[in-house]
Design a protein that fits this description.
It is found in: Membrane. Helices cover 69% and strands 1% of the residues. It is built from 23 helices and 2 strands. It has a two-stranded antiparallel sheet with strand order 1-2. Helix 2 runs antiparallel to helix 19, helix 3 runs antiparallel to helix 4 and helix 14 runs parallel beside helix 19. The chain has a single domain, classed as MFS general substrate transporter like domains (Growth Hormone, Chain: A, Up-down Bundle).
Length: 465
């Protein structure tokens, strides 16, 4: 994460230089306040920098998601890597507060583009039976980075050097990303069938299934899908048809509530009386058991039930924190674990519910709703001066409401990814049970509705090169 902030979630960061001297004290440490005199009447500008960064993440989720559906997952991923590296490096050498905020805003935008592109590439390449496990492994990598960041921040206390240390690796990631394969699904549905065939054949060769890959042709495998392509898709397609609109509103509630409650929980960390570095490690470590449990649940019980249970438990734990003050730290850690599990669920669930042409747009709007939740949470926190019990009550009720909304979503366990809006509409037309039955019935390559039937055996079974 590109900042002098310690990350405690995908949305919340706490600065190691939050404790600063008073107006008449002697500055200590190596934080931004020392260099730019952000103390006394200018102290609130430190929080403004965080808000500007979050605004960048929000704008990036909304804008870059749509651009990825237009220009491709790989292209947007590479651009995000470049932007993260350049903006992070520029932030480390920012000469003043204004330029620092500009670079942070641009870095926040790139962070959204990176996360959304990675999610779509993983989901669109990995076969259905291994999708939950792959998403979980990706989540574990994030958690490991979160824990390692605490050690790096402790070892590199000066914020400029810390910023540079975590920014330079993105240039290495940019070089590596040249070898990644573009989503074949996106290529076909964007009218680039010939290029899709070449990508699939390349992946088949790496999988040592060259003969199967050579059988993939535009004429035999993709003719029907190419004939039904729509010229372009926009954000209005998220609400144009009844089923997609239903999915869109339910997922918006879920994304908003997870972020809203997580942000509210994280804002109370300073009252635990524990080192910020230790909290970083604890909040990262709890993700491992939470994500293991939810991965098993996603694979065998289903996406919908797993999401509902994780949200409901998170809500109950946060509400219990009002009455059980003696174990509030333990309850906060459990609540964080449940919300992390919910985040894993909704990330996978969202990509499986939306069809390929608007998948990244839908995921981007969901991420945008999460940023809105992070913005609204501090406003609710302000009410604790008048009604101390109200903020945790609201933070606890939100996940429960989201659990109810998740109950109105269709199950996607063992169902192939939808490739068109019409396919999603027809699946839902049979009702919720019809969706599940059809998904389990259509499991062979011959009956797979994807325009890439050969990829299940030849290409899709391998991780990205």
């Amino acid at each position: 994460m590109l900042s002098p902030w310690v990350v405690v979630s995908p949305w919340v960061m706490v600065s190691p230089w939050m404790t600063v001297p008073t107006c008449h004290g002697v500055p200590t440490g190596h934080g931004v306040p020392m260099g730019w005199d952000l103390v006394c009447s200018y102290r609130q500008l430190r929080q403004m920098a965080q808000s500007i960064y979050m605004a960048g993440v929000l704008v990036g989720a909304l804008v870059l998601g749509g651009l990825s559906d237009r220009f491709g997952r790989k292209a947007m991923l590479m651009w995000s890597y470049l932007q993260l590296g350049v903006m992070g490096t520029c932030t480390a050498f920012a000469p003043n507060y204004a330029s620092y905020c500009v670079f942070r805003f641009a870095g926040g935008m790139a962070l959204s583009g990176f996360g959304l592109s990675i999610a779509c590439l993983v989901v669109e390449w990995i076969p259905t039976p291994y999708r939950a496990i792959t998403v979980a492994i990706t989540g574990f990598a994030y958690t490991l980075g979160q824990i390692l960041l605490a050690g790096v921040a402790y070892a590199v206390p000066h914020w400029r050097w810390l910023q540079l240390t975590v920014s330079l690796p993105f240039f290495i990631f940019l070089l590596y990303s040249w070898w990644l394969a573009e989503s074949a699904r996106w290529l076909v549905l964007s009218g680039k069938a010939e290029r899709a065939v070449k990508v699939l054949q390349r992946v088949a060769r790496i999988n040592k299934r060259k003969e199967e890959g050579e059988k993939i042709t535009v004429e035999s495998n993709m003719k029907e899908e190419l004939a039904g392509l729509k010229s372009s898709y926009t954000i209005s397609d998220l609400v144009r048809t009844p089923v997609i609109r239903h999915i869109f509103f339910c997922l918006s509630i879920v994304w908003f509530s997870i972020s809203f409650s997580y942000y509210g929980l994280a804002m109370d960390l300073q009252n635990f009386g524990v080192s910020i570095y230790l909290i970083q490690v604890i909040f990262g470590a709890v993700d491992f058991p939470a994500k293991v449990v939810v991965t098993v649940s996603l694979s065998y019980i289903g996406r919908r039930v797993s999401l509902m249970v994780a949200l409901f438990l998170a809500g109950l734990v946060i509400i219990a924190n009002i009455f059980l003050q003696t174990v509030r730290t333990a309850l906060a850690v459990i609540g964080k674990g449940c919300l992390s599990a919910s985040f894993n669920c909704v990330f996978l669930y969202t990509t499986e519910l939306y069809p390929t042409p608007i998948r990244q747009t839908g995921l981007g709007f969901g991420s945008t709703m999460a940023r809105v939740g992070g913005i609204v949470a501090p406003l609710v926190k302000m009410m604790d001066e008048y009604y101390p019990f109200l903020p945790p009550a609201v933070y606890g009720v939100a996940p429960v409401v989201a659990a109810v909304a998740a109950g109105f979503l269709p199950e996607t366990l063992n169902t192939p990814l939808p490739d068109t809006i019409e396919e999603v509409e027809s699946r839902w037309a049979c009702g919720r049970k019809g969706w599940m039955r059809r998904g389990r019935r259509v499991r062979s390559p011959q009956s797979h509705p994807s325009p890439l039937p050969a990829t299940r055996g030849a290409a899709a079974s391998m991780p990205l090169p």
